[in-house]
Specification:
about 280 residues, mainly alpha, 3 strands, about 50% helix
Length: about 280
């Protein structure tokens, strides 16, 4: 599969919230190419090979997903697929990191937990398939763009993954946000408001980005809400908004998320996703 090397500008690296992110981010261009339909080949066998993940954990993930997001799929295979995708991505980055570690130090830096993480399908395809089936956490994780990158001092984009991301990321992020997925809302607040060049999946629309930020600000826990507001007012990702933009965004923010989804956002705070919390795949 063709890959293109790109310098390590933290273009698509996922952060817990847009107000904690640096001003790096996906560089943009407005037009997105058409993308081929992702093949579903390998997804089922990949889940069957999810070593190190016990059945009770998968059932727990599925149970949480049932109550977490309205409209999200409840099939435990989707939550497990999401978790496997994130594990694959983590282990791939760990292996690439080892390339830059002196040989004498590699043994104690190797991650044994990655030995049994395997799949016939790449991480991005597992997330894409689950997202297409309606699994909200997979929509948010895929929309972030993190799984289409390979770590190291030089970032590599899988061209097929990049095309799929550009075709689906904005839709997935909007759907996840509408379901009350806080990190998707944070991502949209940043992506819509930030200008740039190059690869872009989310259009430049600062008023809409501000509106998503206001949704988050209203429901985040106090410290997080204060940081969100500071970024919004000071133009954390561009020029500070004009008064008329703020008014327009305030009105728009009341239409973006349903009352039920807003209720789910109460007390939202940035979350670092890892193995301990199933990478947010439980919801």
């Amino acid at each position: 599969m063709k890959r293109v090397a790109v310098t390590m500008a933290a273009a698509l690296l996922l952060a817990a919230a847009f107000f904690t992110l640096e001003r790096s981010g996906p560089a943009r261009q407005a037009a997105a190419p058409s993308a081929p339909e992702a093949s579903s080949r390998g997804a089922s066998s990949a889940l069957a090979g999810l070593a190190g993940v016990d059945a009770s954990k998968t059932k727990e993930v599925a149970s949480k997903s049932r109550v977490a997001f309205a409209g999200s799929t409840t099939d435990p295979r989707d939550a497990a697929s999401c978790r496997l995708a994130m594990e694959l991505s983590r282990c791939e980055r760990a292996r690439i990191h080892l390339r830059f570690v002196p040989a004498a130090a590699r043994a104690w830096q190797e991650d044994a937990s990655c030995n049994d993480v395997r799949s016939d399908a790449p991480s991005w395809k597992l997330l894409l398939e689950a997202a297409k089936r309606g699994h909200v956490p997979s929509m948010a994780r895929f929309g972030s763009g993190a799984v289409i990158l390979r770590g190291g001092s030089v970032e590599e984009y899988d061209l097929e993954a990049l095309a799929e991301w550009r075709a689906h990321a904005y839709d997935f992020l909007q759907r996840a946000a509408a379901a009350g997925e806080g990190d998707a809302i944070a991502r949209l607040a940043r992506e819509l408001a930030e200008g740039g060049r190059g690869t872009r999946a989310v259009p430049y629309d600062p008023v809409r980005g501000l509106a998503y930020g206001l949704v988050l600000m209203r429901h985040a826990e106090p410290t997080a809400a204060s940081r969100v507001e500071s970024n919004l007012r000071e133009g954390g990702f561009g020029p500070p908004p004009r008064s008329e933009d703020w008014k327009a965004a305030e009105a728009l923010s009341r239409t973006l998320v349903s009352p039920a989804a807003e209720a789910r956002l109460e007390g939202w705070t940035p979350t670092r996703y890892d193995r301990a919390n199933d990478y947010g795949c439980a919801g």
